[in-house]
Amino acid sequence: MAGALETLCGQAYGAEQYHKLGTYTYSAIISLVMICPPICLPWIFMDKLLPLIGQDPLISHEACKYSIWLIPALFGSAILKPLTRFLQTQTVILPMLLSSLLILFFHTTACWTFIFKLELGYKGAALAFCLSIWLNVFLLGFYVKCSSNCEKTRTPLSRDAFLGIGEFFRLGVPSAVMVCLKWWSMELLTLLSGLLPNAKLETSVLSICLTISTLHFTIPYGFGAAASTRVSNELGAGNPHSARLAVVVAICLAGAEAVIVSTSLFFCRHFLGYAYSNDKQVVDYVSIMAPLICLSVIMDSLQAVLSGVARGCGWQHIGAYINLGAFYLCGLPVGAVLGFAAHLRGKGLWIGIVAGSMVQSTLLSLITGSTNWKKQGLEVEDQAAVVQKGKVVVEVDDTNLVVGEQKDRVEVEGVQKVEVALEALVEEEDQAEEDACDVSLGLR
């Protein structure tokens, strides 16, 4: 859901509406904290829910306890994600990089201490993760509070933050659906692997494939975040051609990265599995799955950038519909048929993921390629255009054009051109000055 800020904050920053970044971020934090309790409910009762879909009761019980230990991290993430988007949309990247490096060192040390030294097992892993999340929250929060880089965008909590919750949900919900639909489909196929013959082997291999795919996805996701920032900033600033150029550059970078990573994985396929298991059967199975993993890498690289472009433009609802069709009307059915009916087992399930990714990337490519960027820029300007001249501020929305300064605001309905409203305001001010002069000279 925090992906909504990539649209809201990014375009506001490009339009130099700096005060809105802080307001949007507060709205996001409030909204995300509100939805944490409903998310906690299935986590708490996971030991009763997972057996309903055929999972082992013992594994379900342990998964439930692990999820409960992760609840503090969920609330920490509700604050951390908006903070990172707040800084990202201002291209304040170095502080996040440094804090991430520090958190990486801390998390590694904490995991080793809790799991091996204190012998807390999975509870130690969850505790280390919770502490890492909250430490990152405090580091970034301290930076936002004290840094001069955030001086223009740092605002106090106000009533506008609560009024902006609806606007955040308008983009946040489709943004969450857009992301979750894909990852849920992959998780569902992994769960389905537990229903295959030799479920232990199938689940192990698909879990390894999913881990490889997830680890790789962080790289193109970075390109997608950069594309989202540049596109939203340029559209907000009224530079649609620069936004289009940013899209082209991001796709080229992602394409080069996909070729390098997929080629490396293919040539390392015979010993790739040893990074996760010493079981010869698992390693051989992973080598068979490697070509499909390479296809997933290529598709993930492309769709990560295109999804970033969609977030920058505010197309989250389009992305949600595309992911719904790609993975639930194509990917999951294809995977289920090939995995069970065609007896391809785990290989068939992963082919379903690849098929869904191909449909997703194709549709996103068609939409991005057919976009009229000049028209897109005009749409962003129509949503919120700001012209500042001295203390005079002009705001345009879908129905009204408001001109004024602080308390004295003149509302002009149905006016499309900023110049007309400015002329009306200037004439009013000139008339007021003439009246004041006349009164002072005793002419009236």
TrEMBL record:
The regions listed as transmembrane in this protein's record are 24-46, 66-84, 96-116, 122-144, 245-267, 287-306, 318-342, 348-367
Asked if the keyword 4Fe-4S belongs to this entry, the reply reads no
Listed under GO cellular component are:
membrane
State the protein's name: Protein DETOXIFICATION
Entry's localization field: Membrane
A biological process term (GO) from this entry: xenobiotic detoxification by transmembrane export across the plasma membrane
Which GO molecular-function terms appear in the entry? antiporter activity; xenobiotic transmembrane transporter activity
User: Is Transmembrane set as a keyword in this record?
Assistant: yes
- Kindly state which keywords UniProt assigns to this record, in alphabetical order: Membrane, Transmembrane, Transmembrane helix
Q: What is the lineage of its organism?
A: Eukaryota, Viridiplantae, Streptophyta, Embryophyta, Tracheophyta
Per the similarity annotation, which family is this? Belongs to the multi antimicrobial extrusion (MATE) (TC 2.A.66.1) family.
Q: Name one Pfam family in it.
A: MatE
Q: Which InterPro entries match?
A: MATE_euk, MATE_fam
Q: Where is the signal peptide?
A: none
Q: Which domain of life is it from?
A: Eukaryota
Q: Its topology with respect to the membrane?
A: Multi-pass membrane protein
